[in-house]
Amino acid sequence: MSNLRAKNNVIIAGGIVALLVVVGFLAFREEDNTSNNLSDEQTQEIVQMPHIHGLSFSGDGRQLIVPAHIGLVIFEDNQWSKPDIPAHDYMGYSGVDDGFFSSGHPGVDSDLVNPLGLVRSTDSGHQITTIDFAGETDFHFMAVGYENHAIYILNPQPSASLPAGLHYSLDEGETWQPGTLAGLEGSMTQIAVHPTNTSTVVIATQTGLFLSEDFGDTFTQIGDTGAVTAVSFHPSGDSLLFGNTRLYTYDFASQTAEVISSPEFVASDFIAFVATSPVGQDIAFATFGKDIYLSHDAGETWVQIAREGVGINSNPGSDVSAVESPLQDGQELYDLYCASCHGANGEGQYPENPYLPDASGLVGAPPHDSTGHTWHHPDAVLVEIVQEGRAMPNVHPMPPFKGQLSETQIMAILDHIKTWWLPEQVSAQATASANFTPAAP
To answer: Cα torsion at 135, 136, 141, 144 (round to 10°)?
Structure first.
């Protein structure tokens, strides 16, 4: 492969997801005590999404595709399903006209290298082809043009083959060039690439939307909506769909942004991903709290099709309570819910420099093995962190798992983590747990 690697040392100031840290990305969701019974038809298949890492529609518009940490899940004809394909943990997922591009981590039964680097599929995920960077980088922030397949990636840390910063490829990963990001303001939250014009890219930040028409070298702010947490191009390229606590469209011809009527969701939640069907008027969005909403008429009316990561079948207007995973084995639970961020053996997101910020300015998920700090905390504190999530300044936020993992399951995960500790660390943590007294409310 002939690679013209970018020779820049662009380091993006501020955190890519600093906005999400500030607003408490999933850290404390309002608890809904409403109890609802599922009908027999609704219980045909329960699809649970531990995380949501993107949204896209199939080329014919019939399917809404969700990369959900456990592989791809599908919503079609008012029913959720999990296809029998490899369950890779896709990150930076971008649906295109003939499949998808992505990064992420291989499934637990896969022999692919971790991280995946940059991959693509043209058969709905049955097989993936590695393009580059396998074993080097997990690109959380990337986007690909729907028709032109222009790839834009943010490399969080320098690797053996690519410096940190923004890079683009016009030949599906054969060669790479840098984007200098002049004029971009605020911490980046998401990237979108024009479906046909390879030089046009939009970046969402905590300040707003920024447009570049010169391959990411210079940016100009468009619209006036404040912070933006999600953005995508309409497949026609004529407009943008984007959002924060509300949903908007931006029309390039009139250079105006308009609010789209959208359903109310939990006050502390924000829109994480948006998608527009290449046919018809279907649009969808997902929140950081893992609620998903679908409209068949460009936003005039909406139905909720997932709540807190649990798919709602048959009757999209119905409510559904969170469903906990049936798994009980600590290692299996850790592999499913924790390994993609904290490492397969608890080594952390960036084992070589676990406490140094990446190109986004944020520290990665910390190690849980004997080199980490986890053993300093009593069980009760660790359980609460897993249940409620955690958002800290200058650190990539951790989502909550309340409603997905029971306390018994969390303790099983902790028991597995403790197998990585030194005997004296296990003893010290056990003493701390036994002597722990919760703070008064």
So the answer is: -70
| pLDDT, tens digit (0-9, with 9 covering 90-100), for 288-337 | 889 999 999 999 999 999 998 999 986 544 444 444 555 678 888 888 78
Q: Which residue, among 69, 30, 51, 31, has the nearest Cα to 401 in the 3D structure?
A: 51
Are 380 and 433 within 8 A, CB to CB? yes
- Asked whether the beta carbons of 235 and 195 are under 8 A apart, the reply is yes
Say which CATH architecture domain 330-435 belongs to: Orthogonal Bundle (1.10)
Residue 334's region, left for phi above 0, alpha for psi from -120 to 50, else beta, is alpha
Q: Given CA atoms 99, 90, 107, 131 in this order, what sign does their dihedral have?
A: positive
Q: Which long-range contacts (CB under 8 A, 24 or more apart) does 353-357 make?
A: 353/157, 357/394
- Any idea where the domains of the chain sit in the sequence? 18-311, 330-435
Q: Distance between CA 359 and CA 306 in Å, rounded?
A: 33
User: Cβ(222)–Cβ(209) under 8 Å?
Assistant: yes
Instruction: With CA atoms as reference, report the closest residue to 32 among 325, 320, 270.
Output: 320
> 274 pairs with which residues across the strands?
285
Report the run of H or E that residue 415 belongs to, with start and end: helix 407-417
Q: Of 177, 184, 182, which is closest to residue 204 (Cα–Cα)?
A: 184
User: Which CATH number does the domain 18-311 belong to among 2.40.170.20, 2.130.10.10, 3.90.1200.10, 3.40.50.450?
Assistant: 2.130.10.10
Please measure the distance between the N-terminal and C-terminal CA atoms of the chain and give it in whole angstroms.
Answer: 61
CB 279 within 8 A of CB 296: no
Say whether the peptide bond before residue 115 is cis (omega within 30 degrees of 0). yes
Alpha-carbon distance of 235 to 230, in angstroms, equals 16
Q: What is the pLDDT of residues 52-68, one digit of tens each?
A: 999 999 999 999 999 99
Q: Which of 289, 316, 297 has its CA nearest to residue 305?
A: 316
Cβ neighbourhood burial of 323 (10 Å; 0-12, 13-18, 19+): middle
Backbone region of residue 420 per phi and psi (left: phi > 0; alpha: psi in -120 to 50; beta: other values): alpha
User: Cα–Cα distance between 318 and 3 in angstroms, integer?
Assistant: 51
What share of the chain has pLDDT > 90, as a percent?
A: 56
User: What gap in Å lies between CA 93 and CA 143, rounded to an integer?
Assistant: 7
